[in-house]
Write a structure and sequence with these properties.
This protein is α+β, with helices and mostly antiparallel strands and 350 residues long. Helix content is 38%, strand content 10%. Helix 1 packs antiparallel against helix 5 and helix 13 packs parallel to helix 15. The structure holds cobalamin and iron/sulfur cluster (SF4) (2 copies).
Length: 350
């Protein structure tokens, strides 16, 4: 590798830090040979649930070299979104809705992508005939194994990437480039005998350490799953109405977490502990206004209302009964079903 490549790598680190990224590491596009097989095992077991796209093109999805054969280096970036509050304390306040930390303000997809593009454009300026592709949470790229191979962190037993410098609270972004850059070494597993994340999961979504069955994960159930949620799982959702942070929040490595630099991740006051009663009154326009620029908007009013009604059913609070009764005649079948379930649970408890 030439001296110029090392200088470019160092300048790239400076540029990424100046843009607000918390860390950057580089790996080869051939660095994750075991990923396609593991992805196939996940899909063969049906663990993707309704995320049908995960079962498509598993060969090239697990292999950056197949996805874009011109890739010479994969640049993996981390962006911290560490909360400045305890994200688990809301779970005791059953008349409030718990929205996952990452969704309490701006959508990270927009913010990370903008930054990735700026770093990518800068790289092209330094290496004029080069090309780049940027990815954040993009279907065909397995960002976690790539981040581990590049040395950003390791895939913890909860399957997310944990870092000795950043804990569990960071997003991943990737820049594939035709520029040859020096590669970093993969990070090793530092979970040891810890199993806090596995034991904290409310729905027992980990069939084994390092493996997740998305069909049981509250993040999947509240965000990705369409239609009614399995009746046996509804009580386990508690008051979580969008995503779940439990396995991330208990990780001991969070003591090294860095404060989020992006102000867009600081929780909006009205999304920290919203009243379930008020949320149950939202119509489509009200929903869109409240969640403008937030990732929550993506699931639409009906799926969100379904989640709110499960939380109402789990609240044990008779004062929320009227809101649920009103939604028993909602035009959306899933909302109607969730409302009837909530009414049944609240009245059966009284
Ligand atoms: C689909 C998806 C989901 C699904 C499925 C999650 C999953 N674990 O697969 C659902 C909706 C449940 C989900 C939830 C969340 N997600 Co998500 N999700 C994704 C997405 C789009 C693809 C992940 C994927 O490919 N899964 C397929 C499985 C097969 O891959 P895998 O999880 O890497 O599985 C590996 C292990 O099982 C391992 N393995 C198997 N056996 C063994 C054995 C041993 C010994 C070892 C070491 C490893 C091992 O091999 C597999 C392949 O590497 C990525 C973005 C992306 N494009 O990568 C974001 C992403 C993973 N999600 C992210 C986040 C933040 C979340 C949530 C925290 C959001 C929330 N608060 O609600 C939760 C966390 C839940 C959890 N514990 O995983 C971040 C994670 C950032 C990080 N630091 O790791 C990502 C990277 C998005 C981003 N760009 O920042 N997510
Ligand atoms: S996000 Fe919640 S439900 Fe999903 S695996 Fe983690 S603790 Fe379990
Ligand atoms: S909680 Fe423990 S087992 Fe889970 S990822 Fe963190 S260190 Fe690993």
């Amino acid at each position: 590798m030439s001296r110029a490549a090392y200088s470019l790598r160092d300048a790239l680190h400076e540029k990424a830090a100046a843009e607000g990224f918390s860390n950057l590491r580089i790996c080869s596009p051939h660095a994750i040979p075991e990923a396609p097989e593991r992805l196939k095992a996940f899909v063969d077991a049906g663990r993707q649930g309704q995320m049908g796209w995960m079962a498509e093109g598993t060969k090239w999805r697990g292999n950056p070299a197949e996805l874009w054969p011109d890739t010479r280096s994969v640049i993996m970036l981390a962006e911290s979104y560490t909360p400045d509050h305890d994200p688990l304390s809301i779970l005791q306040r059953t008349d409030k809705g718990a929205i996952s930390v990452y969704a309490q303000n701006r959508d990270y997809h927009d913010l990370v992508k903008k930054r990735l593009k700026r770093v990518g454009r800068w790289l092209i300026e330094q290496a004029p005939d080069s090309e780049i592709k940027v990815f954040v949470d993009t279907a065909p790229v397995m960002e976690k194994p790539l981040a581990e191979a590049a040395g950003l962190g390791w895939q913890g037993k909860h399957t997310n990437v944990v870092s000795r410098e950043l804990g569990s609270w960071f997003f991943l972004g990737a820049i594939f480039t035709t520029v040859e850059l020096p590669f970093d070494s993969a990070e090793t597993d530092n979970c040891g005998s810890c199993r806090k994340c596995l034991d904290s999961c409310p729905t027992a979504a980990f069939p084994a350490p390092y493996q997740l069955d998305a069909r049981r994960c509250i993040s999947y159930l509240t965000i990705e799953h369409r239609g009614p949620v399995d009746v046996a799982l509804r009580p386990l959702l508690g008051n979580r109405i969008y995503g779940c942070d439990d396995c991330l929040a208990v990780c001991p490595w969070n003591k090294f977490a860095k404060a989020a630099k992006e102000l867009g991740y600081t929780a909006r006051q009205e999304l920290l502990a919203p009243d379930l009663a008020r949320l149950a009154e939202l119509d489509d326009t009200g929903f869109r206004e409240l969640f403008s620029k937030s990732p929550v908007k993506r699931i639409g009013r009906d799926r969100f209302m379904r989640n709110v009604l499960y939380a109402i059913g789990n609240s044990g609070s008779g004062t929320l009964l009227m809101g649920a009764q009103r939604l028993c005649s909602d035009p959306d079948e899933t909302v109607e079903d969730a409302a009837r379930w909530a009414v049944h649970r609240l009245t059966a408890k009284q």
